[in-house]
Amino acid sequence: MESHNFKYDDDGSIKRTGTWMTASAHIVTAVIGSGVLSLAWAVAQLGWIAGPVILVLFSLITLYTCFLLCNCYRYPDPVHGTRNLTYMNMVKTILGGRQYRLCGLAQFSNLVGACIGYTITASISMVAIGRSNCFHKYGHEAKCHASNYKYMCIFGAAEIFLSQIPDFHNLSGLSFIAAVMSFGYSSIGIALSIAKIAGGGHVDTSLTGLEVGKDVTEMQKIWYTFQAIGNIAFAYSFSMVMVEIQDTLKSSPPENEAMKKASVTGISITTFFYMLCGILGYQAFGNKAPGNFLTGFGFYEPYWLVDIGNIFIVVHLVGAYQVFSQPIYLLVESWCAGRWPQSRIMAKEYGVNIPLVGTYKVNAFRVIWRTMFVIFTALIAMILPFFNSIVGLLGAIAFWPLSVYFPTHMYLVQAQVPKFSMIWIGVKMLNVFCLIVSLVAAVASIQGMVTDLKTYKPFK
């Protein structure tokens, strides 16, 4: 009986071993994407006042809605209720079937979009390493262009291998490595910004960012401002994998307490790096800040340090891809196992000996399905290499329902908050504000896609 208790939780599921520290690593891996390096550009659009204010504002909104989600993991009681193992399961339990289907559409379109976006971003960093060495060798004016496609294939091959990690419970090591990488390239970006500032040279900055008439037209200023606000809002968004992360935590102390601690830790670390990268990057480059100051060649030298920063980005994105793809894998595998419970291809696991690791369990369906998914994301990335605009659109559409609407409405139901009370009114106002942010960012993303399509030549 003791050995049974050792292996299983009180509800009969496999015993969970995660702590607030492993959850913090998952959060940092999920939240600090390579988008941290575009924050100098975002602050340049908004200026010295609005830039930092919006960064702090969205960190507080994210933390608040995370706390609400933490308490919905068990229902109806936050400590002793029944566990909700996935975000969709939570929505179905608390809000019902129709909301559940809308949640699934928003969550999985966003997760698939993120995986495609990571494939593109990782390939850009790989290309940047070759270009950095080329510029160092032949000078900054040299034509050092290279195709992203072979690098997308390399990234896809790595993800096919890593996709065989069975579930979130086995991802802790990869998440810690990815979290360390995110600190690494953020620190390199910060250090290079400080060095550029210390080196002197005049750059234009202002309280309101890019100046109309001098840097941009009035219409461009509006589009860029919307894009910048959207970029910052979505840079904090990790709600679509939060419940799955919470489901890795041990049952004692209560999961909601541990997850709140992890959320504070993860979002505090994230905000610290976001503020440094955004503010120091803006001070270094002013209104001419590139979209990504490690791949956009805001820095050329020391070239080896720029290379290391881009290597860190690639390694981080390898881990982040797995964090975002796990809920997709789980959904399809759970459905297929329920549909064909007697199938040997679903149930049979084979032991494979891996040197220095030990025996690894391999399942035939898992190998086939996950390999197909990785190939699909790589192909879409190749067909639409400007997909970041589409990912921005998916992020804009999914940010409000996943990060604000569902968490706040589940909280209102679970806590039985009276209609038209001060808390109810406050929650509804937060919903309206974030909906407006999502809509203006979606419009800005569509405008970016229209601009990209004018010059787009596939496989060139």
TrEMBL record:
It comes from the Eukaryota. It is found in: Cell membrane; Endomembrane system. GO terms for biological process: amino acid transport; auxin-activated signaling pathway. SUPFAM superfamilies: Kazal-type serine protease inhibitors. Pfam families: Aa_trans. Coiled coil: none annotated. Keywords: Amino-acid transport, Auxin signaling pathway, Cell membrane, Membrane, Symport, Transmembrane, Transmembrane helix, Transport. Residues 16-450 form the Amino acid transporter transmembrane domain. One of its GO terms (molecular function) is symporter activity. It is a multi-pass membrane protein. GO terms for cellular component: endomembrane system; plasma membrane. Carrier protein involved in proton-driven auxin influx. Mediates the formation of auxin gradient from developing leaves (site of auxin biosynthesis) to tips by contributing to the loading of auxin in vascular tissues and facilitating acropetal (base to tip) auxin transport within inner tissues of the root apex, and basipetal (tip to base) auxin transport within outer tissues of the root apex. May be involved in lateral roots and nodules formation. PANTHER family: OS05G0424000 PROTEIN-RELATED (PTHR48017). Belongs to the amino acid/polyamine transporter 2 family. Amino acid/auxin permease (AAAP) (TC 2.A.18.2) subfamily. This is Amino acid permease 6. It comes from Vigna radiata var. radiata (Mung bean). The gene is LOC106770682.
